[in-house]
Batch of 4 targets.
Target 1
Amino acid sequence: MIAGYVQCGKPKEAVELFKQMEEAGESPNEVTVVAVLAACADLGTSDLGRRIHEYLDKCGYRKNVRVCNTLIDMYIKCGCLEIARSVFDEMEERTIVSWSAMIGGLAMHGEGEEALKLFSKMTRIGIRPNAVTFVGLLHACSRMGLIAEGREFFTSMTRDYGITPELEHYGCMVDLLSRSGLLLEAHEFIKNMPIKPHGVVWGALLGGCRVHKNIELAEEAIKHLQVLDPLNDGYYVVLSNIYAEKGRWEETARVRRLMKDRGVKKTPGWSTVTVNGEVHEFVAGDGNHPEAEEIYQKWDELLTQMKPRGYIPNTKVVLLDMDGEENKVQVLYRHSEKLATTFGLMKTPPGTTIRIMKNLRVCEDCHSALKLISDIVDREIVVRDRNRFHCFKNGLCSCRDYW
């Protein structure tokens, strides 16, 4: 039943059932552990996962490769990269799944160089990569802007290992080229694919168009996305944002009307932070939390320290046609990741890492703010958004740049 809940995308129910099992006096076996660790990974909360980790050490289950692989995956998805690496390093036996999980995890956390070093070590000892390994490598190259290396890995898949690229690999290459500003090449790459591109491939091009402000190719991408993935609100929002950043409010409104006419609803943004085992969820402008007043007061205190360090609210990311700069600033100050971070600082001891899970992409203003806050409070702040992990520490982020 626990595994069934996980497979059906209901990790909260899986964890609840596991707790009921414990209360009933039943001890978990390897199968149970793998399932509940997967649920913890989906939820992005490591508290229960750490407790299970301790149980595994006591019961000797750590010799089970599948259990260890799931443990690595759980820690990676919860933003605990160092612990995941220690589990990996302590394994007596590693499979290609172990290596691929660690390579992909390093890439996801912005540790692209370490991911490539681990791949070199893997191949030196004779472990043959698989398709998943190359997804991690291509992600690493994309995050680091390593165009030549990415091209070589993509070619090497077939040439050296006989692995036929799948849609995810093509998507990674389009992402690499698009992020690097090679939008026309990325477009040609899509047109020359031997398999039909899906929404994620065109979505990667669309994301690059937003970064490099190419409206013409963005409109081309959205034509395909409206057919391939017509109910995905994210693509419409990106195009709308591209128009808004250029001040083309009529086109922005047209995209919003199109969404309404097609029944596409914008996904509300939320962020969660776990404190003492309890998950606290925030939405933008949240005033319903019982400690909302204290949270806003704490945020104002942080602002007084951020501004002398150069923080200027980036109202360009408020992609709404609203009057008054001050109104836009207030919208920025109430973004969910800022509220979750502030609450975490209030409720956890000094030096504790704050871990935030967000369902949408972190905005540019929040990215700048969290870098400053990490330095001011001398804390590590780890944010998992819909694209990747951002590890803020000493005023820096693990990513090469915001994008």
Target 2
Amino acid sequence: MEADQQQPAPSEASNDVTNNTRQAPAIPGIYELTQEDSNWMVTNAFIIFTMQTGFGLLESGCVSLKNEINIMMKNLVDIFLGGFTYWLFGFATSFGHSTLRNPFIGWGDFALDSTDADPNMGALFTVFLFQMSFATTATTIVSGAMAERCNFKAYCIFSFLNTIVYCIPAGWVWSDSGFLNEMGVVDIAGSGPVHVVGGMSALASAIMLGPRLGRYDLGTAAMPLGTPVNAVMGLFVLWWGWLAFNSGSTLGVTGAKWHYTAKAAVMTLLASFGGGFMGLFYTLLRNAGYVEVIDLINGVLGSLVSVTAGCFLYTSWEAIFIGFVGAGITCVTMPLLDWLHIDDPVGATSVHGMAGMWGVVAVGLFASCPPDMSTTQGRSGLLHGGGLYLLGVQALSVVCLSSWSFCSTMLTLWLIDKVVPIRLEPHEELIGADLVEHRVKHDGVGVAEALAVLAEHFDSALLSQVRSIGTNPGKLHEF
């Protein structure tokens, strides 16, 4: 989300936000927006929020039926718990511009608010809304890696606190005063701050929780999807949202920016085509001519993650290649994690973490310097004659972001576990989180048999009152 520092000529409209921000020279450049820019960013923020639907469908489709409601509830709480903490302190630690800010953490604008008389009100709320849509997305990435064995109450605490894991490194990359930004790092839409951070947090979560009961008793082969149609529908929604994710990160459409919003959308699609080809080749080769649903899904998602950092800095063929390689990294590392007995039910570590690292590094190799945008600060990637500097900064960004997110997540979960156990009890995991945490009972998935065997661990009288979903006869008091 590099802001375009070459601003268009101000309009004569009295309510042009650019005119207003120029009255306050201390305001950071990210607030230098016209009305058209604000409209573009707000609209894209609305679309990005629909990605929560995509994550929910994808993750619920990947887990067993007895846990599908639980994973949807986690995606639900991520929005209002993570959104609240982003308003309370997250935005401040990324973009706060008081005199106390420094290259490692922002400061100011806690519990964000503004008065109607503030000439910067529109720009402030526009930037906040757009950035909050990114923050909630980064938090949601982690939920899939914790699926089917995480205590819901502990997860709520984690969701409330996980904002800080994302917001501090986001400030490093995107804040005017962030140390990586000052060094010249380029990450337009978040391969690093969103996906590397989310993916490495997912890895830490999977390690802290340990594998699901019996996951590797019969080998490391992938588990069957609970609802493949849900998973594919989730991909379609995420695909749609990604266009807003990347195109919206030009931070407007005025001046030269409108050219690059269109280019970002096309390069995003081309990269996903390359990822689709790789996913198809991989699954046909690995499965002797059969196509596994999850291979195609994660191939496309890995390619989208890979192109996000430099979405409008590439040529068409470069975008296809970057997506192709990103999908390959995703597909190969998923079974590798299972071989290591790291149980990530939806592949969040591979899709977001590993492909995100490639996406950040790819900028240092393939990025071109747009002549009318300051996105790369005049630098180009190694293969465009730019030398090693940009590649080195991009590699440093990967190291900083992955180290921070992995270690801070491990520490957060360790502290939460001291208060509320982060893992379900074995008998609760066998019954399923839907029943034991949400009183949702499924038929035909073995829950009734497990209840009979494990009856002494539960209040049988209470559980006998829980009716299976889909059995409502239409009369409220008919039993």
Target 3
Amino acid sequence: MEAAASLLNGERAVVVMFLSRIVMYAESSVLYESLALVLLAVCALVVETRAEAPGRISSLKTRPGASCGVMLGAVTLPAVLVSKMIQQSRGYLLGEIELEGLLATLKLFYVFCHGFAAVKVIQHIIHTFFSCASIGEALLVTSGLIHYFGDMIACTVTEICRRLVSSGLVSAQFGINRSEISTIIQGTLFGLLLFPFLFKFLVRIWGHFSSSFNLDSRKYEIGRALVFYVFLSFIVIGIIPMWMQFVQEFSRHPILWIVGFVFSEPYKRLSLCIHWVGLIGVAVLRFYSISKHSKVERILLRKYYHLLAVCMFVPALIYQPMFLDLAFGAALAVFLVLEIIRIWRIWPLGQLVHKFMTAFTDHRDSDILIVSHFSLLLGCALPIWMSSQYNDRPLALFAGILILGIGDTMASMVGHKYGVLRWSKTGKKTIEGTAAGITSMLAASLSLLPLLASTGYLVTESWFPLVFAVTVSGLLEAYTAQLDNAFIPLVFYSLLCL
């Protein structure tokens, strides 16, 4: 019994509950995928227990204070995909969608390339951004990047084959029919993530050039900044839109398409932009001042941004979901550019951005990479992006906003002020905080359902699945030592999709 209890600690027990719920919903159409998910969980559990065995010394420099997290990191994204398959199978049986298939050989080739790329990417992440992530967090980031951009590459290859081959084998796009917004976001993110590798090469050339002409450090920094901004503009305005127009039929240049999309409903969308800018401006100035002159803990200060996300995103998601999709992509692109500027200390903004961002960091961030704002934005955006093709559970769209903006915030604030009973002797999470998070999130979900029904959504959620999803997500927040902004929204979203 003691061995079993040590094997299934709090985090692993919650993961088992999460996976059991998914497997229970699996029908014959996704039976093999569900069994593969169970096998993956068992293998990940074996690896995690061996990695955390006493006396085990790892050469990997992972984030201090975080557990290994292999099991949670390995199964989270595959569990999301299986949940989406169950949801799509339900839609197929109801005649609401049509499923597209791929040749088995293409599937095998894609899986092989996916596995090879995943090994290389996780090695690069752990060794380049050492002490910035646990193994589980690196696994989640790796699987997400490989799946997302593997899909992009497959889409490109399919479009090339479609243009070169006249047969009907490759006439359809890879997997799904993409909207213009999803193509814009995918291309922009890929270009910005690829940009640092290309810029690093250009910096070496500029370094040899400046050495040859004996330029002082001031001129070198200005020249390097000029190279950065010119090359970034070339990538964003020239190269990325070329790919977008290649794989998607745009009536005009993608940048002009974005301008036309925003001004197609100028009153609603520009009003939202003004609302967002006003909230962000006031919040940033206020919270930055508090962080400099107050003794309020940073973990609580950051929860105000979670509440800010609720005020910003809930109205937009109800009344302007497509515009919110595009806005999330634009915000993520801005975050990536600012982080690149901060890491490379690009003149004249690099030091200013670094000083500002470090005012809101905690033990999960480092000087090498600050991830908290990325995880908050992606935690809210991913459930919305993943529901863009088919979704018969409208509450799933709000999974990230509810769990981060309401549940996580209330759990931290109540637990910090009133918490007495701790879940473990070494942890800070309290039972009172967890209960407050679960209760508040359940109340917010039940309050949101009538509003969704009144705005035209077909509400299909029932009591027990909702209570189970909220409870499991709340318990995971209590037990996990991983970056909860990244994992909990995906777990909550997966359970809501069922």
Target 4
Amino acid sequence: MSKGLDHETLNENVKNVQYAVRGELYLRASELQKEGKKIIFTNVGNPHALGQKPLSFPRQVVALCQAPFLLDDPNVGLVFPADAIARAKHYLSLTSGGLGAYSDSRGLPGIRKEVAEFIERRDGYSSDPELIFLTDGASKGVMQMLNTMIRGEKDGILVPVPQYPLYSAAIALCGGSLVPYYLEESANWGLDVNNLRQSVAQARTNGITVKAMVIINPGNPTGQCLSIEDLQELLRFCSREKLVLLADEVYQQNVYQDERPFISSRKVLMDMGTPISKDVQLVSFHTVSKGYWGECGQRGGYFEMTNIPAESVDEIYKVASISLSPNVPGQIFLGLMVNPPKPGDISYQKFVQESKTILESLRKRAHIMTNGFNSCRNVVCNFTEGAMYSFPQIRLPPKAIEVAKMAGKVPDVYYCLKLLEATGISTVPGSGFGQKEGVFHLRTTILPAEEDMPAIMDSFKKFNDAFMEQYEDQRGYSRM
């Protein structure tokens, strides 16, 4: 008789989950690292792991909150600036017992108020703190909303392809159906509303109720920034088709060009006016893990709900209550992100300089990486307009595809494994994100240190061009 944790008795939804960002390539990279090989982990957007320094002010504030006895030390002002001390006291006053105590299941009311004020400054429209839930990173918020919406395999969620595998994994875990809509690579990963309509129609023909649509702006893994016109078209589409819009906006601080600055889905919706501004149900997500903060390990995030019925909000609160409380240090990081030092504060100049240095370097790295990929044989790459990734197309020769299949590998997995073993660069194959049939990509972050980037791209080019030379042998066979 099988036991409850024997593999054959496990939840089938769990067994159906695939998550390429920490999949085969990552595991192989970890093995090679244990064997002593230097590995450059560009598989996940994890800035501090690749050398980005934490911002001083938020770390000072949280350090004081974590060790409040420091506030009683008469010499505390010699080590910590006065505004960090004042802010730590402010956040401790919002808790019911410091960082070791549970908060409300939605997060501390005072920090939700700070988030609402941030949204109002950003968008020009008031925000209700009661409709903002703080979460352990944006991913937990996404999973919470999908779990609330998906009733079974006949419920579908529209997801952009290429997509961040959180969505395919979470939809599988909830037992729903992923309904893909393809971004157009030749149009800088633009949207095609006709393709969207076809995807919804095909899903409905198959008996699937399409309930929501995901957008990732700026895009992951594709790096594009949506224009106001794109967002208006999407919102009209969601209104016509009665879809909830799930707006993943975690990279809103990561923009590397000036033509299309980030604009939130909520602002565009409100600017469109009634009836649509009162009609479209919208859930927006943000986090401290990205931007110039890069505080991935702190797990601070939020989601804000617009036009969601009060009864549904109550149900979402009930589910949040099962976990009792989002982690409190992550909430404080979030409060600091949405309410950073202001002009005139002691820490303002240093905070601005640190932030500006990180963002300017990311912009340079986006150019170095995109130009590097486009200098390689059989590689083409759209410019990384935003987010933290490049997603080059690798035009694999037929012989390489054949050899990969003989080895039992998806062709871009084979290429990425060979790249890893030759150079130590750990990437994610495009097949982990979804892509059109017969087209191959890889995703890499733009996060390695700026001074290391030219050498990394030289190493990639040397490997790639030798790989292409090997498999494009003019005599029709590969030199193994």
